[in-house]
Amino acid sequence: MIEHYYKDVLGDLMKKLILFVLIILLLSSTVYGDIGPKPTLTIIFQGNSKDFIVTALSKEKSTGPFGVEDGYNNDMYLPFQTFQDADGYYFIEEFSEAIDTKEKNHELYAGYYPPRDFKLLMYRKDIDTYAISEVLKAKYFNSKFTIDCKKIDWKTRGSGNTVIIPKDGIKFENNMNSLTFFDISPYLLRLIMTILVEGVIAVFLFNIKELEKLKVIAIANLLTQSCLTLCLYLAYLYFGSLLVFLLFFILEFIIFLVEGSIYKKRNITPKPYLYAFIANLCTLGLTYVISIQDILLFG
C-alpha cells in the first residue's frame, strides 16, 4: 500500500517541486524583492597613502531605488558629476565614498542594490586626476573586491587627466578558490554522522545487516549529501541566504525520493521508501543545523 502510493503520487510531486525550484532561481536572478537580504558590494582599498573619493559607475541608469534621476546632494562628489565615461556608465551618488587615510576609512560598501556591472572610478583632488577600472562584474550575491592602490600609477595619465587602474591591482574575492579544510570540516562531520545515524536505523529498525547493503546506504548518502551541500553553497553565493532556506526542504524531499529509488532498485529492504523517509527525517535536524549554519558562516 505504501509503495504503491509513493510510486503513483510522488513522481508528480517531484516534477512540481523541480519546476518550483526553477521558477525561484529565475526570479531570484532578476528580482530580489522588498523582503529578505539584499545583494551587497564591498570594495577594500589597500596601500593607499592619499585621500580620494570613489564611486561605482553603473551600467544602468538606475538600480533598485537609486538612479541618476535622484540628483546630487553632496558637492564633494562634483568631480564625478562632470566626468564623462567613454562607455556611457552612469554616476549614482548612493554608491560613492570618501576614502580618508587619517580616519582609516578604506572601504566602499554598497549594501542595497549595488550595480552588478560597474566601473570603479577614483578621484584625487590634490593632483586633479581620475583613475578608472575596466568593467567589473559583481558575480556573487555578496561580492567583494580588493584594490591595491600601490599598483595605480597616478603620474602616467592617458587621455585628459585619467589613469587606468591595472588589472593586477584588482582582486575579486572568489570564495570557491579560498575554501580550506576548516571550511569543509562541518560537511565531513555531518556526512559521517548522517551515515552513522542512518546505519543504526537500518540495522535496528529495518534489520538490514548485510555489509553490501550497508555500503549502498553509505554511498547513496555520500552522493546525495555532497550534492545537497554544493547546491546550497552555490545558492548562497549567487542568490543569498533566503534562497538557501527555500531550497533546503525541497532538496531534502528530492533526496528522500532519490535514496528511496536506489534502495528499491538494489533490494535493500522490502520497504525502501519508508526506510528512506524515517532515516532522512531523523537526520533532517542535524543536516539543517550544521549545513545551513556552516554555509552562512563561511560563505
Kindly list the characteristics that best describe this protein.
299 residues; alpha+beta; 5-stranded mixed sheet; 4-stranded mixed sheet; 19% strand; elongated
Structural summary, described in words:
The strands form 3 sheets. A 5-stranded mixed β-sheet has the order 5-2-7-8-10, with no helix packed on it. It has a 4-stranded mixed β-sheet with strand order 6-1-9-11, with no helix packed on it. Helices cover 46% and strands 19% of the residues. The protein has 6 helices and 11 strands. Mean pLDDT is 84; it is low at 5-9 and 29-33.
Give a short synopsis of this structure.
With 299 residues, the chain is of the alpha+beta class. Helix content is 46%, strand content 19%. The radius of gyration is 26 Å and the shape is elongated.
Determine the oligomeric state from the structure.
single chain
| Number of continuous helical runs | 6
Q: Major beta sheet, specifics?
A: 5 strands, mixed
Spell the H/E element sequence: HEEEEHEEEEEEEHHHH
Number of strands: 11
β-strand percent reads: 15-25%
What's the pLDDT, averaged over the residues?
84
Helix content: 40-55%
- Gyration radius (Cα, Å) is 26 Å
N→C terminal distance:
44 Å
Low-confidence stretches: 5-9, 29-33
Coarse structural class: alpha+beta
Could you give the order of strands across the largest sheet?
Answer: 5-2-7-8-10
Task: Give the helix/strand layout.
Blueprint: H1 2-30, E1 40-46, E2 52-58, E3 62-63, E4 66-67, H2 78-81, E5 96-99, E6 107-110, E7 117-124, E8 129-137, E9 142-148, E10 162-164, E11 170-172, H3 181-204, H4 211-239, H5 241-265, H6 272-298
Parallel strand pairs: 1-9, 8-10
Antiparallel strand pairs: 1-6, 2-5, 2-7, 3-4, 7-8, 9-11
Helix pairs in contact: 1-5, 3-4, 3-6, 4-5, 4-6, 5-6
